[in-house]
Inverse folding.
């Protein structure tokens, strides 16, 4: 066989093997630690939102907690909103959703709570309940799980100390989402962590998740890609003495005159 032909055949075979390996070599998500410890102090102020291009809003929240009997927490899941006010041992909860989601709002909530209002307001349905209780830390559980989960999809470079904070920039990596291998690639954002405690104080990220089981699938964009947007803020030492009562408590609970 001609020497040049032999060399050419070997080169083509090596290229073929290299390309094939891109599709055959298994990948695994990196499980190294990330600087995403979330705080859970007795008093705090927090807010945030997580959404994806494919699923829309996953969860948005705003919360102010001064003590175990004085807090105001609001959670939004798609078209559903749950708002709780803790006031000296009494818990007022307002559930709100669209008229087409009426079954959910009729079934949710503790059975022993007193219903103070239930009615339709244009295209919305509102239910307000009252019961005894103090701040339940599980209110924030879903937010913390989702926030931590999405932050851990990325890698972060060496932190840059800025005053009492350490700032981390995200970088691309392979990760596992619901047992599926994906490539996470940031387009913007950073994390700001309390240098002394290691607790995450602020995050603002946007990144793309591409479903791919191999480098070849990722390079050829054979899997679906969605964009994730995440915003999170947390202050464990708020300078707040009292929480303002929402207008719906004055209207619907104290005066029985609801307007939305």
């Amino acid at each position: 066989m001609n020497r040049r032909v032999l060399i050419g055949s070997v080169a083509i075979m090596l290229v073929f093997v290299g390309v094939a390996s891109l599709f055959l070599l298994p990948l695994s998500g990196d499980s190294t630690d990330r600087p995403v410890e979330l705080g859970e102090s007795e008093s705090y102020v927090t807010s945030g939102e997580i959404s994806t291009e494919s699923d829309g809003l996953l969860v948005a929240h705003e919360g102010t907690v001064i003590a175990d009997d004085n807090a105001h927490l609001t959670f939004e899941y798609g078209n559903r909103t749950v708002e709780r006010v803790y006031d000296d041992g009494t818990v007022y909860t307002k559930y709100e959703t669209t008229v087409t989601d009426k079954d959910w709002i009729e079934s949710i909530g503790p059975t022993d709570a007193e219903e103070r209002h239930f009615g339709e307001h244009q295209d919305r349905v509102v239910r307000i309940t009252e019961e005894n209780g103090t701040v339940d830390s599980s209110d924030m559980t879903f937010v913390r799980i989702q926030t931590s989960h999405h932050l851990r999809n990325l890698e972060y470079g060496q932190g840059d100390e800025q005053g009492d904070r350490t700032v981390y920039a995200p970088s691309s990596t392979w990760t596992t989402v619901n047992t599926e291998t994906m490539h996470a690639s940031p387009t913007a954002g950073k994390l700001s962590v309390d240098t002394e405690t290691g607790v995450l104080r602020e995050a603002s990220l946007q990144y793309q998740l591409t479903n791919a089981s191999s480098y070849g699938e990722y390079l050829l964009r054979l899997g679906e890609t969605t964009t994730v947007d995440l915003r999170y803020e947390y202050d464990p030492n708020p300078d707040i003495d009292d929480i303002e009562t929402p207008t719906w408590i004055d209207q619907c609970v104290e005066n029985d005159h609801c307007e939305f």
The CA atoms of residues 161 and 167 lie 6 Å apart. The radius of gyration is 25 Å. The longest strand covers residues 180-194.
